[in-house]
Amino acid sequence: MTRARITGAHFIDSVADALQYVSYYHPPDFITAMARAYAREESPSAKNAIRQILMNARMAAIGHRPICQDTGVVNLFLKVGVEAPIDWTRSPQDMADEATRRAYSLEANPLRNSVVADPLGARRNTRDNTPAMLQTELVAGDKVEVTVSAKGGGSENKAKFAVLNPSDSVADWVVETVAGLGAGWCPPGMIGLGVGGSVDRAMAMAKASLNDPVDIGDLRDRGAATAEEALRLELYDRLNALGIGAQGLGGLTAVLDVKVLSFPTHAASLPVALIPNCVATRHAHFTLDGSGPAEFAPPDLSLWPDLGDGAAEGRRVDLDALDDDLLRSFEPGETLLLSGRMVTGRDAAHRRMIDALDRGEDLPVDLRGRAIYYVGPVDPVGSEVIGPAGPTTSERMDRFTRPLLAASGLRMMIGKAERGPEAVAAIRDHGAVYLIAVGGAAYLVSKAVRSARPVAYEDLGMEAIYEIVVEDMPVTVAVDTRGQSIHVTGPPRWARKI
């Protein structure tokens, strides 16, 4: 009897469908864990952030639009059975790249292309989000198991690695490392650890562990049976006791689970890799056996808590009437609802503006008395004004902040996570403010945008400068005109409470 073959078409169709699926569906176990974190959170700022994340997750699941504007780099984990009836004439990399092109250019739900080629040179966008990142393992069996994940840059950038002495405490190193990560990885999320093996093996284990189910509650109920499980329980408690909270605002939950994979290692070494996964946790698993492409059933949306469709409550602010008295009245941790005109701009646009100032040229847009939003949105579809438009990590703009504030009269910046000391000092010296939108609530934020038009640097694509008009866009005051930062004061306050 001839066995059905696992064809290249099966693989490509399955991966492409999975990438679309994970762009708008969180894993149900992740949503359940987030809902539990929301129920027990006591910090008003952190609770508001988790509420927006859960609202965004439900909206994305219903609307089939991206959870986050950073739709990620494609990561594939292949376990190919050595007896699998494979009928492939192309390499897994070639097929994965075709699936990525197809998924990221789907007209009904286009995903953002974030991959750049020539990383040491021109850093040219590949415009189709290829290549995918593959980890392939030959295993016993006659099937092909595939795990698909889309990993955003904010959490990926916070990956850490160290080779400890065999007598060192892995737990102490992890706690110290996470305490220094800041909020750029968009907590609440997961911490993945790879312990042992070699340098490359440890990093691969840490990345793979993030695709395991959220089950720390079950583990706590039954108790640890291995050293890895004991480490998970210890770190879950110790990391949340840091008081980091959602979005780094200070609160009870920053880590929903800690995953640990280990492997034998050299007697003189203790390699440890740490990779966080952000609130936009996106992954799916399927098995190919020759019967055809994988099928992905929609999850039960009753698992997604319905917290209403309205924005968070807060003080309404007119962006077209910013003045010193108004800015001085903002308090760190306060929720604002912004309405009016602002401009957008990220790394590339900031670099060009600073270059223009250095040449003695005028800026392409008038920023006096204005707000700028650090965002690179997904392309709109249908009647949308803008695609999902969550904030990018603001720290990358720190080096540009002082000269831009000094030359332009800019009054307000909106992004994600903390600012460094240099930027905070510049904000204080110029009487400006820094606000944060919730990372991982991109679709929710986009619904506050009423119009958008490009006004400069259109060749930069999603990094072009746009003028957008918003209505009741929810944000939190992160740095006030006196240079007080909620990311500095919030976590220690909650750590003491915990």
Please explain how this structure is put together:
The protein is an alpha/beta fold. The protein folds into 3 domains: 1-151 and 283-289 and 299-309, no CATH class; 153-279, 60s Ribosomal Protein L30, Chain: A (2-Layer Sandwich), CATH 3.30.1330; 315-497, Fe-S hydro-lyase, tartrate dehydratase beta-type, catalytic domain (fumarase). It is built from 15 helices and 19 strands. The protein has helices at 8-24, 28-40, 44-63, 92-104, 153-156, 170-179, 199-209, 216-222, 227-240, 324-328, 347-358, 398-408, 421-429, 442-446, 486-497, and strands at 6-7, 73-81, 86-87, 116-117, 124-125, 133-139, 144-151, 160-164, 189-196, 255-263, 270-277, 283-288, 315-318, 335-344, 371-373, 412-415, 433-436, 449-456, 465-479. The strands form 5 sheets. It has a 5-stranded mixed β-barrel. It has a 4-stranded mixed β-sheet with strand order 6-2-7-12. The protein has a 4-stranded mixed β-sheet with strand order 8-11-9-10. A hairpin with a 6-residue loop joins strand 4 (116-117) and strand 5 (124-125). Helix 1 (8-24) packs across helix 4, helix 2 (28-40) runs antiparallel to helix 3 and helix 6 (170-179) runs parallel beside helix 9 (227-240). The protein starts with 5 loop residues before the first strand and ends with a helix.
